[in-house]
What we know:
By secondary structure, the protein is α/β, with parallel strands linked by helices. It has one domain (3-286): Alpha-Beta Barrel (TIM Barrel), CATH 3.20.20.140. It has twelve helices and eleven strands. A four-stranded parallel β-sheet has the order 5-6-7-8. Strands 9-10-11 form a three-stranded antiparallel β-sheet, with no helix packed on it. A two-stranded parallel ribbon has the order 1-2. Strand 1 (29-32), helix 2 (40-49) and strand 2 form a beta-alpha-beta unit. Helix 1 (8-24) packs across helix 2 (40-49), helix 3 packs parallel to helix 4 (123-135) and helix 4 (123-135) packs across helix 5 (147-156). The chain is globular and about 60 Å long. The two termini are 36 Å apart.
Amino acid sequence: MPYFLTSTSYRAIQGAANARAMLQAGFTAIRDVGNAGTYGDTALRQAIEEGIIPGPTMQNAGRIIAPFGGQFTLQPEKPSLGNPEYFFADTPDELRKAVRENIHYGATLIKVVVDDQPYIYSVEDLRLVVEEAALAGLKVAAHVWTEQGALNAIEAGVASIEHGPNMSDDALRLAKEHDVTLVGTEFTELAIEITFFGTTAAEGKVLHAQFIDRLRRAYLIGTPMAFGSDVVFSYQGHDRGTLTLTYLDNFAKAGIPPAYALQMMTINAATVMGLQHERGAIVPGLAADIIAMPDNPMENLASLHQVMFVMKNGAVFRHDP
Length: 321
């Protein structure tokens, strides 16, 4: 059901189910970077932290900050249709207020949409967001689709670029130079078919190939990358965790070695979350987040589909016979 037809309370219940499914699949830490209703993501994170429900260690972004219209074309008689998903902010004061309001209501990172409108956030706009978030110790994740959006986000000092399908080699090198992590969310053909409304099968194949090509180029250039899926859909026979794991096929298509794919899902992911001193590796002093599967994922990444043991913070959540 489309998010704008469901209440925040119902979506919080969906979130609880998704959190359990993600942990069941072996994801012990996640970011929720938007489309969370009226801070249902904050309630979900708090419930996990208090042990009320099981779920991964979680960071949440609250309302997405975006230029007027967000990611859609609104109609004049319905200008508020983007609320409460988006915080439309088009001036320095509005941007500052959006960051502060998100932090006040429990966001633990900030998400901005840079360039889904003909007017995009400038370097100055984004730098203000980055600086305001940093005052509270928060990082900024930037939804980027265009080359210019990527360049603006990198120069402004965001922590991560989400998506970035149109990034050139020059943009990827600039991200590497500025230590900006690419969370490419390389959509599978199934994800494109369900998520990108109005896209034909042929167009979906082209877009998927574009993502795979960018993933391949980013790896060869050495752009820092962390795993992310942007799974926002349901599909029969799957839950949020198993759907997320379908993205593993992208690594093989792009020629990414299993060892680096695992690094994207562990060390690099912990780093972009700012948790590298707490999680992301199995070493003394870090949280005991450990998963196990029958085969060696360094040799066969697909073995992650067969996770049979999950420990988070030293507590066993899953242990199959």
